[in-house]
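Researcher: Here's the sequence for the chain we discussed earlier.
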Amino acid sequence: MTNTDERATRVREVRRRLTQEGPPRTRDQEGDFETVTVPEQHCDQLRDLMVSEGAEKVVEVGLAYASSALAIGEALAIVNRPLPRHVIIDPFQEREYSNAGWDLLCSAGLDSIATLMLTPSSIALPQLLTEGFVADAAFVDGSHRFHEVFVDLYFLRKIVRPGGLIVIDDDWWPSVHTAAQYYERNLGWTVIPDAFSDETIGVGPHGKQRARCKAYRLPDPSFEPSFENFRAF
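Model: Thanks. This is the structure I predict for it:
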């Protein structure tokens, strides 16, 4: 077994335990892990998407119990590019989640490629942009307030390379969906239709069933639209 196989296998085992046994600790809210975490099937699809992209550098907004972060880490291990980097932004990881997600990443050996930023994404993302960080892909599962999702996507389109990927969780929430619609209608983001299965996993707001995750391909080259051509969203 090669070192690459061993790394991927180690991550896969931590993912399996998390799915079967849950995290080592949770917040004092009934069913918090099941409510907050990205379902295993979507995590598998996220991993496969990152592998097919050959991703080397990924930005993730939101860590919580690390289900999606472990899937991304597994993808980076499988792709095995020279300088993998996984930047994770979560201001609540330490004070609300008692580092449960980060500890799981460490147990999978992913702290060698992962960086945790404990600041709000509205501060962390501009910092990454200022540093000149360029990502192949991003996964967004942070604040679900419209204005904060909109700001996350604003900076991520400058950080993720032209032609790269931005994947959004909880698109079934109107606030998240509406923010993404601006970029789809005005900035040339195109939905990758087969990235996630049509099968609904879980139940969205108000008990309605609909797709949860959505993946976008950014335009290449990137462009700035004229304000005169604004399309309502």
